[in-house]
Amino acid sequence: MGAVQLLGVQKFFGTMEVIKGIDLRVDDGELVVFVGPSGCGKSTLLRMIAGLEDVDGGEVLISGVEVSGLAPAKRGVAMVFQNYALYPHMSAYDNLAYGLRRSGMARADVDSRVRETAALLQITDLLPRRPKAMSGGQRQRVAIGRAIVRKPEVFLFDEPLSNLDAALRVEMRSQIARLHQELKATMIFVTHDQVEAMTLADRIVVLNSGRVEQVGTPREVYHNPANLFVASFIGSPAMNLLPITRGEDGSILLESGEQMIWPGGKIDGPPGRALTLGLRPDRLSLVGSDQGQISGTVHLAEHLGDETILHVQTAAGRALTLKCDGDAPARLGDLVQIGLDLTGACLFDPDGRRVQ
Amino acid sequence: MGKSTPSGQAGAETLPRRRRRAGRNEARAGVLFALPWMIGLAIFTAIPLVLTFYIAQARFQITGAPKWVGLQNYSAIWADPAVWTSAQNTLMFAMISVPIKLVLALCLALLLNRVTMLSGFYRTVFYLPFLMPAVAGSIVFILLLNPVAGPVNMMLQAMGLSPPDWLLDPKAALWTLILLSLWPLGVETLVFLGGLQNIPKDISEAADLDSPRGWHKLVWITIPLITPMILFNLVTGIIYSFQVFTQALVIGGTTGKPAEATLMYMVVLYRAAFRYFNMGHAAAMATVLFVVVLLLTLLIFRTARSWVYYEGESR
Ligand SMILES: Nc1ncnc2c1ncn2[C@@H]1O[C@H](COP(=O)(O)OP(=O)(O)OP(=O)(O)O)[C@@H](O)[C@H]1O
Ligand SMILES: [Mg+2]
Hints:
The structure holds 2 protein chains of 2 kinds.
Chain A: E1 4-13, E2 16-26, E3 31-35, H1 42-50, E4 57-62, E5 65-66, E6 77-80, H2 92-102, H3 107-121, H4 136-148, E7 154-158, H5 166-183, E8 186-190, H6 194-200, E9 203-208, E10 211-216, H7 218-223, H8 228-233, E11 240-246, E12 252-254, E13 259-260, E14 274-279, E15 284-287, E16 294-303, E17 307-314, E18 319-325, E19 335-340, E20 346-348
Helix pairs in contact in A: 2-3, 2-4, 3-4
Chain B: H1 7-12, H2 15-55, E1 58-61, E2 63-68, H3 72-79, H4 81-114, H5 119-131, H6 134-144, H7 151-158, H8 170-182, H9 186-197, H10 201-210, H11 214-225, H12 227-242, H13 246-252, H14 265-274, H15 279-307
Antiparallel strand pairs in B: 1-2
Helix pairs in contact in B: 2-15, 3-15, 4-8, 4-9, 4-12, 4-14, 5-9, 6-13, 9-12, 12-15, 14-15
The complex binds adenosine-5'-triphosphate and magnesium ion (MG).
């Protein structure tokens, strides 16, 4: 019940292949988040599951049934659109009731279902109002209400929170998380927002130009990115990427000439092998003079209160990002020494594949 | 902005006041821009309208000065059987042709809305009949419907049907006129098409997700969202159909052949004015028509509150 399976799914717009053969299984009751850069095909993939776009190759299975011949309304899916897409000529009540009425449900049952859903989302007061007379957050809740009132097996959310302000977004995010726990339904959620993805997802699917780059729990994609793309896309501020070479003894040779020992022992491959070292900003720290591996000038200091993000330009012209304490003394233009902590660091080969 | 406002004074002004002045300037510019049109409206619509009201209460035969006769013209048209016949015919014509026309135009617009290839071509083709003079169109129809050599009857006969005598059978003639008036559907169709294309794609998709039946979406989502266009087409359609003239004159002449079946109100009015030169009679008829159409339109607008959805309305 409620599992979504994609088998080699493809989509063409004209001659352009937008979805390039995606295999994915979303288990029943799971909340999966699609992330990826703009134009990578997140919405398209979601709309193919909903039946709003034709599938040009491969198969989409919902609850084990191949759905390509099924109308959107018969797939047991409900979708929440970015712009709410409420029926503007109907009250919130009618927006919620519309689908139920059309399915031939008795009046009294429709009423109790609508009221039950409204209570769950705390929109009972809004029921007599038309969408025009509601705020963005209220509309979004009604839109979510319209989706859950039909008790679908699969919920599809296409960036539902992106039109809300920051505070409301946090509130709606927790509401969606709560709904997911209460309804135990399968949910697929598309977002641009890193925090949304990390906090909501059981698993994250990282998409890039129509392909899946990695599927994994938020911890996995953050700590164990499968490749350079995932490493640089997930995490904010982004991972630092430094070109290095393998030293004679399997150690790391930085651009500055400094040598470091790889925590796991030795780096594979021949000496002189060119690699990219990926380090999260919190693994870099300011250290006293002649203790650091890299030196550079502070380019920009973002004081966020409890922490400070420093953007540093190294002598070799690389841009590095450091996450330090809120009371870090560094100021714009300062020459700083940076120490590297290689725990949790990643190594990528020139093709972007993770090697260690 | 204004040269007359010294900068020191402008700084001292309160913001709302300055804004009010800007608004007034804007209104003045607006009036200026609308002026040519307003003058045209006065000369070609308002003045003739007032003159009509005046002549309706006068005996006026084009030559000589109008002579005041009070309500005599009105009692004359009340007593004129041709007026009653034509009023009845016109009402019948309006009641049948307007709904059919709206439904056909809506169907056409729904079809055109789905066409993705050559859509501009189809839109132009359907609009073209409107650009054709009504006289020419009517004559083409007379040729097409000719009982002996007309292609329509030949085809019907070939299919084994016995076609009516379109133009000479009193029972069929009104329907022929209706058929003829349905031909230029272009404007109504384009108005509907504009409404359909104004419906946001995601709302239409939400409806697809809510119910698999196409007619559900049509009845509950699409049609309610284009009610402003329905209202517009309904009102203009009624106004137009009450004034149907050219086609009726071409088919039935000034006597509404056959047997007064196509005798329309405007034809009787025309006959009074330009055949009998009884301008007072014609003007009184025009005034009655004006009042009837006005009342009807007001009535429709009154009911519109309950069935027309306007964007931006929050009720
Ligand atoms: N109807 C369409 N016709 C042609 N190309 C399309 C169509 N819809 C989407 N595309 C293209 O398909 C690609 C994927 O689009 P999609 O909307 O799925 O991206 P997305 O990942 O949702 O982006 P965003 O994050 O900006 O919403 C884009 O390159 C887009 O230009
Ligand atoms: Mg999108």
